[in-house]
Amino acid sequence: MKKIALVVFLSLCFVISSGLFASSNAAPSGKIFYISPQGNDAWSGTLSKPARGRTDGPFATITRARDAIRQLKKDGSFNQSVTVYLRGGTYFLKETVVFTPEDSGTEQWPIRYVNFGNETPILSGGQLIETDWKTSGANQIQAILPEVKNGDWYFYQLFVDGERWTRARTPNEGFHTMAGEMRLEGPARFTFQDGDIKKEWIEYGDVDVIGLAKWAEIRMPIVDVDEANRTATLTKQVPPSNWQGENNPRYWIENAPEALDQPGEWRLERKTGTLTLNRMAVVAASWRRRRSISNALPSAMISAHSGVAGAMYRQISSVCESAGIEI
Questions:
Q1: Whole-number Å distance between alpha carbons of 92 and 109
Q2: What confidence tens digit (pLDDT) does each residue in 97-122 have?
């Protein structure tokens, strides 16, 4: 089958202060830089579009524009306001974009990042991939992702034509229920209802339990199953404060082979790197979760007298470690 585009999303951290926001319709003044999906970070960034012969033009990335402004300050040339215009299109960010106090403007000379005219720039925490797809069964297609197979990458969210698809889950609606309470000593263990969990799932290493209790949630792989006693063991111990006294907690299973049974579902096998789904144009997100806003955005990252206006943010996601998490 023909190659199609696969986009996978990385963590995006774009700090917007409560300072000064600009209108993209305001007349340009001061120093002007441009960024475009058709740009090049080796160019000057002072042209709104590539020149003939592509010898100069806009920057390609926000990071390059940020660094250009930093250089103005180092050179002693920061003596006017600076506006960075983002041309329309999608910007796939390969790494976190970080703004620190070093990137602040001043009340007299603010720094603004704004959309160009009526164009809509989209900042996507994504990485574009091309891959070959093969049919698998009546309604499924598959592709091998070498980065997943090699252990360099894994993701938990998938977007198809801009819509978030469901990681293969069972039950398709509602929940399973544990029998009794979660056992809190050592790695989390619980008793499941007959037929809800299968022993062969532990061979994959990527079949997860998503459990709900009080104000807590766990997402952990199943590492052992005692079918005789209907006991499943997960990777980590859970905090007693969140689970003690919680009777018959609800949970569901994700990424089991048998769970891939509905349109709009997908499954990614960690060991083989096999991605299975039913559609062709795919956008995926790695799930990078921060435990709190304060940890994700320390105060040292906040910029003053800087602003961002007119941009859209998509597929900004929070890495679930292979051993799982409790939040």
A1: 29
A2: 899 999 999 999 999 999 999 999 98
Tokens standing for 113?
């990042």
pLDDT tens per residue, range 131-187 = 888 888 778 888 899 999 999 989 888 877 667 889 999 999 999 999 999 998 899
Residue in this structure with the two tokens 């007959």, named with its chain if needed? 194
Residue 260 tokens read as 């891939």
Give the phi and the psi of residue 287 in degrees, each rounded to 5. -95, 95
Residues of the chain with pLDDT under 50: 1-24, 280-281, 286-305, 318-320, 326-327
The two structure tokens encoding residue 302 = 């906040």
Contact of 143 with 3, CB cutoff 8 Å = no
Two tokens, residue 213 = 């209790």
Please list, residue by residue across 139-150, b when 16 or more beta carbons sit within 10 angstroms of its beta carbon and e when fewer do: ebbbbebeebee
